[in-house]
## 1
Amino acid sequence: MRKTFIAGNWKMNKTPSEAVAFAKELVKSLKDSDTKLMIAPSTAALAPVADVIKGSNIILGAQNMASVEDGAHTGETSVLMLKDLGVEAVILGHSERRAIYGESDELINAKVKLAIKHGLTAVFCIGETLEEREAGKAETVCFDQTEKGLKDVSAAEMDKVVIAYEPVWAIGTGKTASPEDAQAIHKAIRGKIEQLYSKEVAEKVIIQYGGSVKPSNVKDLMAQADIDGGLIGGASLEVESFTALANYNK
Ligand code: PGA
């Protein structure tokens, strides 16, 4: 049985002081949730938020990291630094990183492997653009990103990978893939994992859906057989909505 994994991607929102105040409220309001929970503040807020959520049922996630451990990489953050702060998971290959910062599948693959090497969970994002969907290429784009992003990741290491399917056209737009459309792609991605690895790995891997998930649609999305959680941007920024998402099953 895969445990539902609800994660908040705060993106470039909330100053460290705002993040601390918000995290304090979340610790209180989420304490009875039985889903796996993660919050991913900006890099600048990781350290103070780590102190707030220590010992709670919420794990700390980062939104990105460098593809190498250390050295002359001005402006980057190392996996070693994230680990030192108590970060347990890192979002990699988010469509905003791909589109705005030009991250390639090869770079994302290097980051995924480095995160796993250091024991972090890689929340590995894939998803097609509207143009690609309209051209009937949604599946092939996701397959290609999956294959390239997970290149040289072993079956055993797949325990440290969470896949987040986020159709680019649904991110921050208010447009959600219908539960049935999302399920179809999730099922196909699981099939791809089975082809690349094994049935056992495919049945274990958590595949989150992301793209305008909100309290009003979360239940229908999570009810789908191959949707195992959500990676949530906008609706993770308010206590009330993130609590409703975390407790969607209550
Ligand atoms: P959204 O963002 O929930 O605001 O659409 C999701 C994401 O980009 O992870």
## 2
Amino acid sequence: MDCIFCKIIQGKIPSVKVYEDDNVFAFMDINPIGTGHTLVVPKTHAEDIFEISEQDAIEVLRAVRILSTAIKKGVQADGINILQLNGKAAGQVVPHLHVHIIPRWFDDGITISHWPMKAGDMDKIKEVAEKIKVEL
Ligand code: AMP
Ligand code: ZN
């Protein structure tokens, strides 16, 4: 399979690694949104949240928690965004599941966490909730 993140995990493509365990690999994003932008990936290839196993999802989140604390301290961030994109419509470019850990500072100018707040139609919100619940 021609997957760039699998190649990084296997050491066939260089990366700036910050963490590795049996199931998870983490490395610095080469196009950082800001200082300390880090990617966390499962070692077993899974394209997205729909494909990853429950156990690997747990392992990835375990690593994300540990790394978030280390990154926040390491770069003395005021906060952290955790972002994970699924599918082209959601902006996913690399089809190997990855969690972005993005350090944040007050007034850092990064806009990913700001969307216009507009009160929703409660009837519509409840109708959508029912559509979700029947799929569980
Ligand atoms: P996305 O699929 O949109 O969630 O983002 C893919 C991310 O992978 C981008 O932030 C890229 O900068 C990053 N990226 C792509 N190739 C590499 C690489 N070889 N090393 C590190 N980061 C990469
Ligand atoms: Zn892969």
